[in-house]
Design goal:
This is MBL fold metallo-hydrolase. The protein has 355 residues and is α/β, with parallel strands linked by helices. Helices cover 32% and strands 20% of the residues. The radius of gyration is 20 Å and the shape is globular.
Length: 355
Protein backbone atom coordinates (compact mmCIF):
# COMPACT_ATOMS: atom_id res chain seq x y z
CA UNK A 1 0.00 0.00 0.00
CA UNK A 2 1.46 3.36 -1.00
CA UNK A 3 1.47 6.32 1.34
CA UNK A 4 2.32 9.54 -0.40
CA UNK A 5 5.47 10.82 -2.03
CA UNK A 6 6.89 9.69 -5.38
CA UNK A 7 5.76 6.27 -6.58
CA UNK A 8 8.36 3.60 -5.83
CA UNK A 9 8.33 2.53 -9.47
CA UNK A 10 9.53 5.98 -10.61
CA UNK A 11 11.75 7.07 -7.72
CA UNK A 12 15.26 8.38 -8.29
CA UNK A 13 17.71 7.72 -5.45
CA UNK A 14 19.94 10.66 -4.48
CA UNK A 15 23.03 8.48 -3.99
CA UNK A 16 22.96 7.23 -7.60
CA UNK A 17 21.05 9.95 -9.46
CA UNK A 18 19.18 7.23 -11.36
CA UNK A 19 16.24 4.93 -10.67
CA UNK A 20 16.73 3.34 -7.26
CA UNK A 21 16.61 -0.22 -8.67
CA UNK A 22 19.31 0.37 -11.32
CA UNK A 23 22.30 -1.95 -11.06
CA UNK A 24 25.42 -0.77 -9.28
CA UNK A 25 27.28 -0.42 -6.00
CA UNK A 26 26.16 3.07 -5.05
CA UNK A 27 28.10 4.90 -2.33
CA UNK A 28 25.71 6.25 0.31
CA UNK A 29 28.33 7.19 2.92
CA UNK A 30 32.01 6.63 3.55
CA UNK A 31 32.54 2.86 3.44
CA UNK A 32 28.83 2.09 2.83
CA UNK A 33 27.39 0.97 -0.51
CA UNK A 34 23.85 0.22 -1.70
CA UNK A 35 23.48 -2.70 -4.13
CA UNK A 36 19.99 -3.23 -5.62
CA UNK A 37 19.28 -6.88 -6.47
CA UNK A 38 16.41 -8.18 -8.61
CA UNK A 39 13.23 -9.80 -7.32
CA UNK A 40 11.32 -12.31 -9.45
CA UNK A 41 7.67 -11.56 -10.17
CA UNK A 42 7.56 -8.77 -7.61
CA UNK A 43 6.12 -5.31 -8.18
CA UNK A 44 8.87 -3.86 -6.00
CA UNK A 45 11.43 -4.91 -8.64
CA UNK A 46 14.44 -4.94 -6.33
CA UNK A 47 15.80 -5.13 -2.81
CA UNK A 48 18.61 -2.92 -1.56
CA UNK A 49 21.44 -4.86 0.06
CA UNK A 50 23.91 -2.66 1.93
CA UNK A 51 27.64 -3.31 2.20
CA UNK A 52 29.69 -1.91 5.09
CA UNK A 53 33.45 -2.06 4.66
CA UNK A 54 35.65 -2.82 7.66
CA UNK A 55 39.29 -3.66 8.38
CA UNK A 56 38.50 -7.36 8.79
CA UNK A 57 36.02 -7.69 5.91
CA UNK A 58 32.49 -6.85 4.85
CA UNK A 59 29.21 -6.72 6.73
CA UNK A 60 26.06 -6.96 4.62
CA UNK A 61 22.69 -5.68 5.77
CA UNK A 62 20.28 -8.27 4.29
CA UNK A 63 21.26 -10.71 1.57
CA UNK A 64 18.65 -10.67 -1.16
CA UNK A 65 16.56 -13.49 -2.61
CA UNK A 66 18.51 -16.67 -3.37
CA UNK A 67 17.99 -16.76 -7.13
CA UNK A 68 20.81 -17.07 -9.71
CA UNK A 69 20.29 -13.59 -11.19
CA UNK A 70 20.62 -11.92 -7.79
CA UNK A 71 23.67 -13.96 -6.83
CA UNK A 72 25.43 -13.12 -10.10
CA UNK A 73 24.67 -9.41 -9.76
CA UNK A 74 25.78 -9.30 -6.12
CA UNK A 75 29.07 -10.96 -7.11
CA UNK A 76 29.61 -8.52 -9.99
CA UNK A 77 28.68 -5.49 -7.87
CA UNK A 78 31.02 -6.47 -5.05
CA UNK A 79 33.85 -6.81 -7.56
CA UNK A 80 33.37 -3.18 -8.64
CA UNK A 81 34.41 -2.13 -5.12
CA UNK A 82 37.31 -4.61 -5.06
CA UNK A 83 35.65 -7.32 -2.98
CA UNK A 84 34.03 -10.73 -3.33
CA UNK A 85 31.93 -13.28 -1.47
CA UNK A 86 34.97 -14.49 0.49
CA UNK A 87 35.30 -11.03 2.06
CA UNK A 88 31.86 -11.20 3.68
CA UNK A 89 32.29 -11.78 7.43
CA UNK A 90 28.71 -11.31 8.58
CA UNK A 91 25.13 -10.67 7.51
CA UNK A 92 22.82 -8.60 9.68
CA UNK A 93 19.38 -9.58 8.40
CA UNK A 94 16.45 -7.28 9.12
CA UNK A 95 13.83 -10.06 8.96
CA UNK A 96 13.05 -13.55 7.73
CA UNK A 97 11.21 -12.83 4.47
CA UNK A 98 12.82 -14.60 1.53
CA UNK A 99 13.98 -11.46 -0.30
CA UNK A 100 16.01 -10.52 2.78
CA UNK A 101 17.09 -13.82 4.32
CA UNK A 102 17.59 -16.61 1.80
CA UNK A 103 20.74 -15.36 0.03
CA UNK A 104 22.30 -14.56 3.40
CA UNK A 105 21.53 -18.08 4.57
CA UNK A 106 23.00 -19.68 1.44
CA UNK A 107 26.15 -17.54 1.24
CA UNK A 108 26.69 -17.67 4.98
CA UNK A 109 26.81 -21.45 4.91
CA UNK A 110 28.90 -21.57 1.75
CA UNK A 111 31.54 -19.04 2.76
CA UNK A 112 31.48 -19.30 6.55
CA UNK A 113 29.99 -15.86 7.21
CA UNK A 114 27.99 -15.29 10.39
CA UNK A 115 24.25 -14.67 9.92
CA UNK A 116 22.33 -12.72 12.58
CA UNK A 117 18.52 -12.68 12.76
CA UNK A 118 15.94 -11.59 15.32
CA UNK A 119 14.82 -14.40 17.60
CA UNK A 120 11.20 -13.46 16.94
CA UNK A 121 11.64 -15.11 13.53
CA UNK A 122 12.41 -18.53 15.01
CA UNK A 123 8.77 -19.77 14.91
CA UNK A 124 8.60 -18.99 11.17
CA UNK A 125 11.83 -20.90 10.50
CA UNK A 126 10.61 -23.78 12.66
CA UNK A 127 7.43 -23.87 10.56
CA UNK A 128 9.46 -23.97 7.35
CA UNK A 129 11.68 -26.76 8.65
CA UNK A 130 8.53 -28.84 9.18
CA UNK A 131 6.87 -27.79 5.91
CA UNK A 132 6.61 -31.42 4.75
CA UNK A 133 4.14 -32.07 7.57
CA UNK A 134 1.76 -29.29 6.48
CA UNK A 135 -1.49 -30.33 4.82
CA UNK A 136 -2.24 -26.84 3.47
CA UNK A 137 -0.70 -23.39 3.18
CA UNK A 138 -0.16 -21.98 6.69
CA UNK A 139 -1.81 -18.77 5.48
CA UNK A 140 -5.08 -20.58 4.72
CA UNK A 141 -6.24 -20.58 8.33
CA UNK A 142 -5.42 -16.87 8.68
CA UNK A 143 -7.38 -16.07 5.53
CA UNK A 144 -10.36 -18.07 6.77
CA UNK A 145 -10.46 -16.09 10.00
CA UNK A 146 -10.52 -12.99 7.79
CA UNK A 147 -13.63 -14.34 6.04
CA UNK A 148 -11.66 -14.97 2.83
CA UNK A 149 -12.37 -18.68 2.26
CA UNK A 150 -12.42 -18.40 -1.53
CA UNK A 151 -9.11 -16.53 -1.52
CA UNK A 152 -7.64 -19.19 0.80
CA UNK A 153 -8.70 -21.92 -1.63
CA UNK A 154 -7.09 -20.11 -4.56
CA UNK A 155 -3.87 -19.52 -2.62
CA UNK A 156 -3.72 -23.24 -1.85
CA UNK A 157 -4.44 -24.23 -5.46
CA UNK A 158 -1.72 -21.91 -6.73
CA UNK A 159 0.94 -23.59 -4.58
CA UNK A 160 0.54 -26.99 -6.33
CA UNK A 161 1.89 -28.71 -3.24
CA UNK A 162 5.42 -27.44 -3.87
CA UNK A 163 7.65 -27.06 -0.82
CA UNK A 164 10.23 -24.29 -0.39
CA UNK A 165 13.88 -25.16 -0.92
CA UNK A 166 14.88 -25.78 2.69
CA UNK A 167 18.57 -25.32 1.81
CA UNK A 168 17.71 -21.61 1.56
CA UNK A 169 16.24 -21.50 5.06
CA UNK A 170 18.97 -22.61 7.44
CA UNK A 171 19.01 -21.42 11.03
CA UNK A 172 21.13 -18.31 11.66
CA UNK A 173 24.43 -18.54 13.48
CA UNK A 174 23.27 -15.85 15.92
CA UNK A 175 19.88 -14.85 17.30
CA UNK A 176 19.38 -11.19 18.16
CA UNK A 177 17.38 -10.48 21.33
CA UNK A 178 16.28 -7.08 22.60
CA UNK A 179 18.16 -3.93 21.64
CA UNK A 180 21.94 -4.20 21.48
CA UNK A 181 25.08 -2.71 19.97
CA UNK A 182 27.08 -4.63 17.37
CA UNK A 183 30.68 -3.88 16.46
CA UNK A 184 31.13 -3.57 12.69
CA UNK A 185 34.81 -2.85 12.22
CA UNK A 186 35.40 0.51 13.92
CA UNK A 187 31.68 1.29 13.85
CA UNK A 188 29.12 0.69 16.57
CA UNK A 189 25.76 -0.28 15.07
CA UNK A 190 22.61 -0.17 17.19
CA UNK A 191 20.39 -3.19 16.50
CA UNK A 192 16.86 -2.05 17.40
CA UNK A 193 14.00 -4.54 17.64
CA UNK A 194 11.06 -3.21 15.61
CA UNK A 195 8.32 -5.89 15.46
CA UNK A 196 5.25 -5.37 13.32
CA UNK A 197 6.02 -6.26 9.71
CA UNK A 198 7.34 -9.50 11.22
CA UNK A 199 7.77 -10.41 14.90
CA UNK A 200 11.58 -10.41 14.75
CA UNK A 201 12.19 -7.39 12.53
CA UNK A 202 15.26 -5.27 13.31
CA UNK A 203 16.56 -1.95 12.08
CA UNK A 204 20.25 -1.10 12.33
CA UNK A 205 21.26 2.45 13.21
CA UNK A 206 24.72 3.93 12.67
CA UNK A 207 24.26 7.08 14.71
CA UNK A 208 27.77 8.38 14.07
CA UNK A 209 27.22 8.16 10.30
CA UNK A 210 23.64 9.45 10.64
CA UNK A 211 21.96 6.56 8.82
CA UNK A 212 19.44 3.83 9.59
CA UNK A 213 19.28 0.56 7.66
CA UNK A 214 15.52 0.34 7.97
CA UNK A 215 14.65 -2.95 6.27
CA UNK A 216 10.92 -3.05 5.63
CA UNK A 217 10.02 -1.10 8.76
CA UNK A 218 10.46 2.43 7.41
CA UNK A 219 10.05 2.54 3.64
CA UNK A 220 10.13 5.90 1.83
CA UNK A 221 7.19 5.50 -0.57
CA UNK A 222 5.08 2.58 0.70
CA UNK A 223 4.04 1.00 3.97
CA UNK A 224 4.98 -2.65 4.51
CA UNK A 225 2.43 -5.42 4.64
CA UNK A 226 0.99 -6.01 8.11
CA UNK A 227 -0.46 -9.36 9.15
CA UNK A 228 1.34 -11.31 6.40
CA UNK A 229 3.24 -13.63 8.71
CA UNK A 230 2.90 -17.16 10.02
CA UNK A 231 2.50 -18.28 12.67
CA UNK A 232 0.16 -15.31 13.11
CA UNK A 233 1.41 -12.58 15.45
CA UNK A 234 -0.70 -11.00 18.16
CA UNK A 235 -1.67 -7.42 17.29
CA UNK A 236 0.84 -6.93 14.44
CA UNK A 237 -0.38 -3.41 13.58
CA UNK A 238 -0.22 -2.27 17.20
CA UNK A 239 3.35 -3.63 17.33
CA UNK A 240 4.23 -1.88 14.07
CA UNK A 241 2.90 1.46 15.27
CA UNK A 242 4.71 1.11 18.60
CA UNK A 243 7.91 0.34 16.70
CA UNK A 244 7.43 3.46 14.58
CA UNK A 245 7.11 5.48 17.78
CA UNK A 246 10.31 3.79 19.01
CA UNK A 247 12.17 4.84 15.86
CA UNK A 248 10.71 8.33 16.27
CA UNK A 249 12.36 8.44 19.70
CA UNK A 250 15.82 7.88 18.18
CA UNK A 251 17.84 10.68 16.57
CA UNK A 252 16.61 11.72 13.11
CA UNK A 253 18.61 9.68 10.59
CA UNK A 254 18.79 9.16 6.85
CA UNK A 255 16.64 6.25 5.71
CA UNK A 256 18.50 3.44 3.94
CA UNK A 257 15.49 1.28 3.04
CA UNK A 258 15.20 -2.24 1.68
CA UNK A 259 12.93 -1.04 -1.13
CA UNK A 260 12.96 2.39 -2.71
CA UNK A 261 15.33 5.35 -2.75
CA UNK A 262 17.46 6.69 0.09
CA UNK A 263 15.36 9.22 2.01
CA UNK A 264 16.31 12.14 4.28
CA UNK A 265 14.43 11.63 7.55
CA UNK A 266 13.34 8.70 9.72
CA UNK A 267 11.27 11.12 11.82
CA UNK A 268 9.33 12.52 8.88
CA UNK A 269 8.60 9.10 7.42
CA UNK A 270 7.61 7.56 10.76
CA UNK A 271 5.15 10.42 11.26
CA UNK A 272 3.68 9.87 7.79
CA UNK A 273 3.28 6.13 8.36
CA UNK A 274 1.61 6.62 11.74
CA UNK A 275 -0.80 9.16 10.24
CA UNK A 276 -1.56 6.80 7.36
CA UNK A 277 -2.53 3.96 9.68
CA UNK A 278 -4.67 6.23 11.85
CA UNK A 279 -6.52 7.21 8.67
CA UNK A 280 -6.99 3.53 7.74
CA UNK A 281 -8.30 2.80 11.24
CA UNK A 282 -10.88 5.55 10.81
CA UNK A 283 -11.88 4.14 7.43
CA UNK A 284 -12.34 0.69 8.98
CA UNK A 285 -14.45 2.21 11.76
CA UNK A 286 -16.62 3.99 9.19
CA UNK A 287 -17.12 0.71 7.34
CA UNK A 288 -18.39 -0.96 10.52
CA UNK A 289 -20.91 1.79 11.25
CA UNK A 290 -24.41 0.89 10.17
CA UNK A 291 -23.58 -2.81 9.91
CA UNK A 292 -24.71 -5.54 12.25
CA UNK A 293 -21.24 -7.03 11.87
CA UNK A 294 -18.61 -7.61 9.16
CA UNK A 295 -15.65 -9.86 8.44
CA UNK A 296 -12.26 -8.42 7.54
CA UNK A 297 -12.90 -9.29 3.89
CA UNK A 298 -16.15 -7.35 3.88
CA UNK A 299 -14.47 -4.29 5.36
CA UNK A 300 -11.55 -4.63 2.93
CA UNK A 301 -14.04 -4.40 0.06
CA UNK A 302 -15.03 -0.93 1.31
CA UNK A 303 -11.45 0.38 1.21
CA UNK A 304 -9.24 1.64 -1.61
CA UNK A 305 -5.92 -0.12 -2.23
CA UNK A 306 -2.53 1.20 -3.37
CA UNK A 307 -1.86 4.88 -3.99
CA UNK A 308 -4.39 4.73 -6.82
CA UNK A 309 -7.22 3.63 -4.49
CA UNK A 310 -8.00 0.55 -6.57
CA UNK A 311 -11.20 -1.34 -5.75
CA UNK A 312 -10.65 -4.59 -3.87
CA UNK A 313 -12.22 -6.67 -6.66
CA UNK A 314 -9.71 -5.29 -9.18
CA UNK A 315 -6.76 -6.74 -7.22
CA UNK A 316 -5.14 -10.06 -8.10
CA UNK A 317 -5.87 -12.97 -5.76
CA UNK A 318 -2.58 -12.68 -3.87
CA UNK A 319 -3.13 -8.97 -3.23
CA UNK A 320 -6.69 -9.65 -2.12
CA UNK A 321 -5.38 -12.05 0.50
CA UNK A 322 -2.82 -9.51 1.68
CA UNK A 323 -5.53 -6.85 1.86
CA UNK A 324 -7.86 -9.07 3.90
CA UNK A 325 -5.10 -9.92 6.40
CA UNK A 326 -4.02 -6.28 6.73
CA UNK A 327 -7.61 -5.17 7.28
CA UNK A 328 -7.94 -7.79 10.01
CA UNK A 329 -4.87 -6.29 11.71
CA UNK A 330 -6.53 -2.87 11.67
CA UNK A 331 -9.80 -4.21 13.04
CA UNK A 332 -7.94 -5.95 15.86
CA UNK A 333 -6.50 -2.57 16.90
CA UNK A 334 -10.03 -1.14 17.01
CA UNK A 335 -11.00 -4.00 19.32
CA UNK A 336 -7.97 -3.34 21.54
CA UNK A 337 -8.97 0.34 21.71
CA UNK A 338 -12.51 -0.58 22.76
CA UNK A 339 -14.03 0.79 19.54
CA UNK A 340 -15.17 -2.58 18.19
CA UNK A 341 -15.87 -6.14 19.32
CA UNK A 342 -14.87 -9.44 17.72
CA UNK A 343 -16.74 -12.75 17.70
CA UNK A 344 -15.81 -16.06 16.11
CA UNK A 345 -18.22 -17.18 13.41
CA UNK A 346 -18.31 -20.06 10.95
CA UNK A 347 -17.47 -17.61 8.14
CA UNK A 348 -14.61 -15.96 10.05
CA UNK A 349 -14.17 -13.45 12.84
CA UNK A 350 -17.01 -10.93 12.77
CA UNK A 351 -16.28 -7.40 13.94
CA UNK A 352 -18.99 -5.07 15.26
CA UNK A 353 -18.93 -1.41 16.26
CA UNK A 354 -18.78 -1.12 20.05
CA UNK A 355 -21.95 0.20 21.65
Amino acid sequence: MSTGGIATGHAISPDSGVHWADEGAWKVAEGIYRIPLPLPMDALKAINVYVIEGDSGLTLIDGGWAIPEARELLDASLRTIGSGFGDIKQFLVTHVHRDHYTMASVLGKEFGADVSLGIGEQPALDLLQNAADLTESPFAAVLRTAGAQEVADQWGAGNNGELPDLSHWGMPSRWLEGDLSIAVGSRSIDAVHTPGHTPGHYVFADRAEGVMFSGDHVLPTITPSIGFTVPPADQPLAQFMASLAKVRGLPDLRVLPAHGPVAPSTHQRADELLAHHEDRLNQCLSSLRGRSGATSLEVARDLGWTRHEHAFDSLDVFSQGMAAMETKAHLEVLVARGQATADDHIDGVVFTIAS
